[in-house]
Protein: HAUS8 protein
Organism: Alectura lathami
Amino acid sequence: KALAWLEEKAEENLLMLCEEMERQQEKLYELKREVLLKEREQKLEEELDKQMEVLSPLVPLLERFKEQYTSFAGSLDATRHKLPMKNIHIEGDIPTYLDELQKQLTITQELLAEVMPSYAEESAKVSSELEGAEERFQKLDKELQRTFAELQNLSYEASKEVSLHNQRVCEDNHGLDVVKHWYFN
């Protein structure tokens, strides 16, 4: 009986030890994973620092490029409908050319998305604002032309009235016979 009891106790202890060993092993795996993650983060930070060192002189150039590209895109978008679209020479067959052109445009779009991710929305906003501003400027130009014509007419009428008033004053002061010789020889 005592031996059976000892065997049972030993089995229970062995099971507890196995469970404890599994828990400790899980903790060990978790700690190893955390250490590997920290090492990876540290390597990424080092790589990022190296990239920042290499790319930091390019930041002013990139800013200038962004400004120039935004200006160019706005200008191109504003004048797009005015560009001539005839007499384009294409070497080879058109489907092959179009496929190659599509590939190049996709590459360009990806590169631009990397360089300027948020400028597409801003470019669209600026373009719509420019179109609105162009319409307002055209309306303002028409209104200014109309106002200028009205101002010229008003100036003409005022000059005419002043002339007629001066003529009346001269006629009253000098007499009609004297003034007649001034105008009619």
